[in-house]
């Protein structure tokens, strides 16, 4: 799959003529805000500079720095200040390559490295069960740093022997990282290798209870094992919590990302996850009577339904952001009309649940030799778009109504503009067809997104551009250039006007359709941004990355407000629940993880898929979560049951302890296999019919 071989690089952002490189590790997150949305022209000119060479396909890069720390009274700073408790503020800087590597000069006796490591290993394996699981987290970061130290100081044979002896002890989910590490056998290799710099410059975060930490500290001081203690001090960030040590199962659920776990501090900011109040307008009842086919019961049933919707929206959701927190476009008449249609459809919506599963309609792309790389379906399910590896974007009508372009200017001048059916008359019947092909990109198209009003379409490509297409004329209106590398995903805001893109430069960008520069640049991921999603209230954006983390960004100020770790491979799908409280994420590890956005906690893990999950979607009322995978299956999960009775008390939130149910099979409602079609997109219609799409693969 073209989608899987994603490498990385660094981003330099030029603002007002000065160039500042934006790249950070997970401890401190940088964001560059060009100008508030809707306040005139964005002034930032974004360019992406190539990074320090290295292996383009390795999928990782992180660039952050030897930290400059500002302590607060509650923080305790020891030595270089990386074992801290409390609210230390971390400010990160761009490292100088030689300075980064020179830290490996402080070395011990190379022949004793194996002894040091095996001594610590023996101590941890002989410690009490309750501490063993926590302290075992040290194995991987210590192994990497000790190996790199040996290589840097040109003890090549000792490094090789050290690697061969201990690499088999590491957790299986670090195998890809270890493969890259094994290719670094000489000092010269390190200078150009991004993965090495990533590891050297980011602080690996470990979350350990105070008792386990004291045990480790005492052991290292008694043994006078300065070499390991120096590495702990220099390269690790130990997030200490008071309370019971975590179990192996709890730790395994949360670790696996490129830089360890997220610090608890990273998920403390307030997030307005509630929905915005719906604008009020009258629903014309005569239409309902007609549609009700003169059955008196139907309009009467629907009328209270409409009032309920109205009364719900009159009460402001306590968790919702202020209505004017970010400028949103005003509703046009056509949008109001569409909302009325939506309400009518909602009145006929099927209530789903374990006893009432949705029907699934699968759109298979046959003979797609161009290589299908992206799919999207309009909200009203009238059109489907495919992005292809041959750089084309193809739009199909999936209703009997064909796709038509607007007439030429000469023909339009002959039309009576006052007539009721003017919108029909301006369409040129001669252009009617089921399929329109849009040409313009010069590389595979990796992401597509319809605007909520169905007038526009976004596509993003390997050529580094995002294009905006008109669905009235089927032509390209704008090419947005900001990423200098492949753009993996793009998505319209649920309110239109804004959209987000994420790419190989490890940065996500927020755009407005009428600005040719991005309004916000979200920097902080340590590898490619592989997927992007707007929160239903449009105030937040979620991004998934090849660094195996998910971040939630605030559109207003560009800050990172949540970092979720737990996946063991690059993230490829994201879905917010319709009420805005929860986020579901899918990755190459075949797991779907569920997150409580308000508390910043993982609350569920759905196991069953055997390959990458490329599609996730909640049903319209949030009762069911559908997941689609490269294993050629669609699975349906009971979302109501998954989110009920959540333990989100103060203790859970303070320590980050989570108790996931042992077996997610009781949440699985159904598995539906295709013959040989990987599932790349899912969509619930307004009446809760599930549409799925993918390209048939003959192998």
Describe the protein's architecture and organization.
This is Transcription initiation factor TFIID subunit 5. InterPro entries: TFIID_NTD2 (IPR007582), TFIID_NTD2_sf (IPR037264), WD40/YVTN_repeat-like_dom_sf (IPR015943), WD40_PAC1 (IPR020472), WD40_repeat_CS (IPR019775), WD40_repeat_dom_sf (IPR036322), WD40_rpt (IPR001680). Residues 108-236 form the TFIID subunit TAF5 NTD2 domain. Mean pLDDT is 77; it is low at 1-95 and 286-313. It contains 18 helices and 36 strands. The chain is of the alpha+beta class and 699 residues long.
Topology:
Layout: E1 11-15, E2 18-22, E3 31-33, E4 44-47, E5 68-70, E6 83-84, E7 89-91, H1 97-102, H2 113-126, H3 129-135, H4 139-152, H5 156-166, H6 175-182, H7 187-191, H8 194-201, E8 204-209, H9 210-222, H10 226-235, E9 236-241, H11 248-254, H12 285-291, H13 297-314, H14 333-347, E10 360-365, E11 372-377, E12 383-388, E13 393-397, H15 409-412, H16 422-425, E14 435-438, E15 445-450, E16 456-461, E17 465-470, E18 475-481, E19 487-492, E20 498-503, E21 507-512, E22 520-523, E23 529-534, E24 540-545, E25 549-554, E26 560-565, E27 571-576, E28 582-587, E29 591-596, E30 601-607, E31 613-618, E32 624-629, E33 633-638, H17 639-643, H18 650-655, E34 668-673, E35 681-684, E36 690-695
Helix pairs in contact: 3-9, 4-5, 4-10
């Amino acid at each position: 799959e073209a989608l899987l071989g994603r490498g990385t690089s660094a981003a330099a952002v030029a603002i007002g003529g000065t160039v500042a490189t934006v790249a950070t590790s997970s401890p401190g997150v940088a964001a560059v805000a060009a100008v508030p949305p809707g306040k005139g022209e964005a002034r930032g000119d974004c360019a992406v500079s190539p990074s320090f060479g290295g292996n383009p396909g390795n999928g990782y890069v992180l660039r952050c720095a030897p930290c400059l720390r500002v302590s607060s009274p509650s923080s305790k700073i020891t030595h270089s200040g990386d074992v801290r408790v409390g609210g230390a503020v971390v400010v990160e800087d761009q490292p100088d390559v030689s300075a980064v590597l020179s830290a490996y000069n402080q070395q011990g006796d190379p022949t004793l490295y194996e002894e040091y490591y095996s001594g610590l290993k023996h101590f941890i394996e002989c410690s009490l069960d309750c501490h063993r699981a926590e302290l075992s987290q040290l194995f991987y970061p210590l192994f990497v740093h000790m190996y790199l130290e040996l290589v840097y100081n040109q003890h090549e044979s000792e490094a090789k022997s050290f690697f061969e002896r201990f690499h088999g002890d590491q957790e299986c989910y670090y195998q890809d990282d270890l493969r890259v590490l094994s290719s670094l056998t000489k000092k010269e290799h390190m200078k150009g290798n991004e993965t090495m710099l990533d590891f050297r410059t980011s602080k690996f975060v470990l979350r350990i209870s105070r008792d386990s930490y004291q045990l480790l500290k005492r052991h290292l001081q008694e043994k006078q094992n300065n070499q390991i203690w120096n590495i702990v001090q220099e390269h690790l960030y130990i997030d200490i919590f008071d309370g019971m040590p975590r179990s192996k199962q709890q730790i395994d659920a949360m670790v696996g990302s490129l830089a360890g776990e997220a610090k608890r501090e990273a998920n403390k900011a307030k997030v307005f996850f509630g929905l915005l109040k719906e604008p009020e307008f009258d629903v014309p009842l005569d239409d309902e009577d007609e549609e009700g086919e003169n059955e008196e019961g139907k309009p009467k049933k629907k009328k209270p339904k409409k009032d309920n919707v109205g009364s719900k929206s009159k009460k402001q959701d306590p968790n919702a952001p202020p209505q004017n927190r970010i400028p949103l476009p005003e509703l046009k008449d056509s949008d109001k009309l569409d909302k009325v249609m939506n309400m009518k459809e909602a009145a006929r919506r099927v209530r789903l649940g374990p006893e009432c599963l949705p029907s699934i309609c699968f759109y298979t792309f046959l003979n797609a030799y161009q290589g299908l790389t992206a799919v999207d379906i309009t909200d009203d399910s009238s059109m489907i778009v495919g992005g292809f590896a041959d750089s084309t974007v193809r739009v199909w009508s999936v209703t009997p109504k064909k796709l038509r372009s607007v007439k030429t200017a000469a023909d339009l001048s002959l039309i009576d503009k006052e007539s009721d059916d003017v919108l029909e008359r301006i369409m040129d019947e001669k252009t009617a067809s089921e399929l329109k092909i849009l040409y313009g990109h010069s590389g595979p198209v990796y992401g597509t997104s319809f605007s909520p009003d169905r007038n526009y379409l976004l596509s993003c490509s390997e050529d580094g551009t995002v294009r905006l297409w008109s669905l009235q004329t089927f032509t390209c209106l704008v090419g947005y250039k900001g990423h200098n590398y492949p753009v993996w995903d793009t998505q319209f805001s649920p309110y239109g006007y804004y959209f987000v893109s994420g790419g190989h430069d490890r940065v996500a960008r927020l755009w407005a359709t009428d600005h040719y520069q991005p309004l916000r640049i979200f920097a902080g991921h340590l590898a490619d941004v592989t997927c992007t999603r707007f929160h239903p209230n449009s105030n937040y954006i979620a991004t998934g990355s090849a660094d195996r983390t998910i971040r939630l960004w605030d559109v207003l100020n560009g800050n990172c407000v949540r970092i979720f770790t737990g996946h063991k491979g690059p993230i490829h799908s994201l879905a917010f629940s319709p009420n805005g409280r929860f986020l579901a994420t899918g990755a190459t590890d075949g797991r779907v993880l569920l997150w409580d956005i308000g508390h910043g906690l993982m609350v569920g893990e759905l196991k069953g898929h055997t390959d990458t999950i490329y599609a996730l979607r909640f049903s319209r009322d949030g009762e069911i979560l559908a997941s689609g995978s490269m294993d050629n299956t669609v699975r349906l999960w009971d979302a109501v049951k998954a989110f009920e009775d959540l333990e989100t008390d103060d203790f859970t939130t303070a320590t980050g302890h989570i108790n996931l149910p042992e077996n997610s099979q009781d949440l699985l409602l159904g598995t539906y296999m295709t013959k040989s079609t990987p599932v790349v997109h899912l969509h619930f219609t307004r009446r809760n019919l599930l549409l799925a799409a993918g390209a048939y693969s003959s192998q």
